[in-house]
Structure formats: C-alpha cells, structure tokens
Amino acid sequence: MRPSAKRPCLGPSEPDSLDSSFQKRLTKVSIEGNIASGKSTFVRLLEKYSEEWEVIPEPIAKWCNVQSTDNEYKELTSSQKNGGNLLGMLYDKPTRWAYTFQTFACLSRVKAQLKAASAKLQEAEHPVQFYERSVFSDRYVFASNLFESGCINETEWAIYQDLHTWFLTTFEPDMQLDGIIYLRATPEKCMERLQIRGREEEQGIEMEYLESLHHKHETWLHERTIKVDFDNLREIPILVLDVNEDFKNDKIKQEDLIDKVKAFLKS
Ligand SMILES: Nc1ncnc2c1ncn2[C@@H]1O[C@H](COP(=O)(O)OP(=O)(O)OP(=O)(O)O)[C@@H](O)[C@H]1O
Ligand SMILES: Nc1nc(=O)c2ncn([C@H]3C[C@H](O)[C@@H](CO)O3)c2[nH]1
C-alpha cells in the first residue's frame, strides 16, 4: 500500500518542508466494522505494537455529551435536559434524531481527519494513522441504512449527501485513505459483545439493526458491490480480518493479526 498524494497542512504551523515530507510518508488506514465487533480492542493492540502507529479514536464521548457554546440561551433545550447525549437520543427516537446525529458524526470525523498528527508521529520514519471508522462508513453504512429504514427522510438524505460531498471535495487530500481494515464478525457475535460491554445507550439495539449494518459492511467491503461516489474509494486496498474468535486473551492470535496488518501496510 502506498501513502496517498501530498496533503496540505492544516495543523499548527510547521515548516513547509517538514510538513510535506511527513505527508508523503504518512499512511492513513481506517478500521471498519459493525457495532461491538471489536474495533477499540483491536486498535489498542496496534497502538501497543509500534511507536510509529497512532490511533484516532471515534469521538463517542463527544456524541454522548454535546455542549452548547452559546451562553445567550439560559434555558435548557430539550437536548441539554437529556444531558446532551445525542447517541442516547438517536437510539431512543431515531426518526427524530438520525439526521442530527449523522451530520454531527460526519462533522466530528472530518475534524478528526484534519487534526495535525502528534509531534512524535511527525518524526517517525514510517508513520501510520489508524482511524476508528471514517467519513465513508458514516455515509455508506450508517446514514444510508438510516435512510433505507425510513429514519432519515428524502430531504434530509439529500442535504446529508450534499454536505458530505462538499466536505470531501473541499478537504479532499486530507480525507483520502490509503487502506481499510474490515473487522468482520457475525451480527450474533456483535450482539453478544454489545451485551457484555453494556453501554447504557445501546441496550435497546435489536438484532435486526446489527444485521442491516452487517449487510452494509459486507456489500461495501467484502463483496465490493455498492456504488461509491469517490474514485479513490473504488480502488482502495482492503484487508478483511475475521474477528469472531477471542483474540483479547490470546497472544498467538494477536501476533497473527499484527503480522497481517504489517503485510498489508507493506503491500
Ligand atoms: N476478539 C474478541 N474476543 C472477545 N471479546 C472481544 C473481542 N473483541 C472485543 N471484545 C469485547 O467486546 C466488546 C466490544 O468491543 P469494542 O468496544 O472493542 O467494540 P467496537 O467495535 O469498538 O464497538 P463500537 O462499534 O461501539 O465502537 C468489549 O467488551 C470487548 O472487550
Ligand atoms: N447512526 C450512527 N451513525 C454513525 O456514523 C455512527 N458511528 C458510530 N455509531 C454508533 C454505533 C455505536 O453505538 C456507537 C459507537 O461506535 O456509535 C454511529 N451511529
């Protein structure tokens, strides 16, 4: 896999030469997979393996605690009364909150991809950034599924797609990925893990929802049959890893996964 084309610097001011040489060396990979398939668990392994590998986590804490920066409004809005927990609101009433959630998730992913890399990573010889999900799963898995299930209406879907395309074309070089790692697990396994994890907001998630998301991941990343609107995404290298088995407590399986990631990065 080769690092993608040169990207402009949007981070804190750095000498141009340092930045452009870093951008050329940098490889960006997103980690995709169904809810509770084990992405956070997997990226913790990656982070431990190499100082040259950095993880950009999904900003779930932000989604669970949306704060208004506007002091003019002294009265609490209904979302603030809910503790600003947009993820909770999404699962409580998807027809009301799906569009809001999806645009906010997309915005937070764009911001995460624009953030400058750490000073340590900038000094690395072969720096790699791993993103927990991406602007692409935002659209082709979650938003698309919410539209197809009627939680996002035609107008909202049109606005979301317009906004998404605008973000991606405006910040194109920064949004480009060099590869995707798909953590593939059955919806049954994800449900089992989701219940063990016990995140409060997710307790009402039904099997049907995990099955639809599984289908979206499969057609996008395994069968590669869905139509995507971005050239770079059509050709992108994808590594599919079966994560149904427990690797959390198995050193040999962990090494095997790391070897596959290393081979993928070299390929
Ligand atoms: N391979 C595995 N074997 C056994 N348990 C696992 C495995 N991977 C993850 N788990 C457990 O499953 C639960 C969900 O894992 P994790 O939080 O990593 O999922 P995730 O994909 O990051 O979830 P989300 O989609 O919500 O971000 C956790 O309790 C974790 O400890
Ligand atoms: N609707 C929707 N759109 C997204 O882009 C998205 N990304 C993550 N999630 C949900 C899954 C987990 O519950 C939780 C943590 O991954 O957040 C999303 N939900």
Textual characterization of the structure:
This protein has helices spanning 16-25, 39-49, 60-63, 78-81, 86-92, 94-114, 119-122, 135-148, 154-170, 172-175, 187-197, 207-222, 231-235, 251-266; strands at residues 27-33, 53-56, 128-132, 179-184, 238-242. It contains 14 helices and five strands. By secondary structure, it is α/β, with parallel strands linked by helices. Mean pLDDT is 90; it is low at 5-15. The radius of gyration is 19 Å and the shape is globular. Helices cover 54% and strands 10% of the residues. Strands 2-3-1-4-5 form a five-stranded parallel sheet, sandwiched between helices. The protein has one domain (27-65, 83-266): P-loop containing nucleotide triphosphate hydrolases (Rossmann fold). The chain binds adenosine-5'-triphosphate and 2'-deoxy-guanosine. 2'-deoxy-guanosine binds at residues 35, 58, 60, 87, 90, 101-102, 105, 133, 138, 142, 146, 202. Belongs to the DCK/DGK family. Pfam families: dNK.
